[in-house]
């Protein structure tokens, strides 16, 4: 933000920077110049976040969202931003909303014309007039050798026929497609072989397709697939989450007490050490190391340059918000939402 990295900061400070240095100026721009902004192809909203012990309010607020939400994301407040996969994130979805992205392979049956002799090359051919089997393939990782080539290059390489590569994929299961669905797919005139499809497992174990994911080059990695299936097996319901709110709140408050105690210990240590330094400079003796170790700050926080007292005083006099004062202004759910009829 403003040419300064904030990835090392905790969640609340990152949200503060995003809100004050990006979203508020953006909203003010749209307010002052509505005519100039009306043709923009996008609109940005700042998602509200709140403590996990207010889950019942979050579920109520979902009815007022301007976008479709399929679940909750629980984000750690004290860790820095992690690019790629953040192991501290927890995502909750209802079990029926858990989906997996597979690669589809269509297998049409062979037709044998028994009226033709066995040596006739036209005796056996692929029957494209019947519904094929929709095989689901799971990605094992890695890129296929010709994954990024154009359609024209693919056709030329395969002797005039376009062929999808299923290298680095293993057969996983089969998609259930009714005759009515197959007729609808045929009428669309689209190609389906080799496309990524978002699928959901029914209670009877069969798989159904929800939509195609043409925005993805590959399906879910097999490790992700196994984790999703495990989460479906050990699913937690919305009602169970709401029921656990008191326990979640108690744990949250306990962590806050521990943090405040650690901060007080650190403050006392710094205060004691500064007085000890003055006293020892007069006696020209070195004090023994403190008996009790003070809780260390996170490594990433400790590595960041700290303002000296003069810089901090100047910031306070000028009204500039210091690093210690950064906070996310609103959790967005302090008041119960008003629902339109």
Automatic annotation (TrEMBL):
It holds the Pfam family mRNA_cap_enzyme. Residues 97-242 form the mRNA capping enzyme C-terminal domain. One of its GO terms (biological process) is 7-methylguanosine mRNA capping. Residues 4-93 form the mRNA capping enzyme adenylation domain. Its EC number is 2.7.7.50. Residues 273-341 are annotated as: Disordered. It is found in: Nucleus. Residues 323-334 have a biased composition (Acidic residues). It catalyses: a 5'-end diphospho-ribonucleoside in mRNA + GTP + H(+) = a 5'-end (5'-triphosphoguanosine)-ribonucleoside in mRNA + diphosphate. This is mRNA guanylyltransferase.
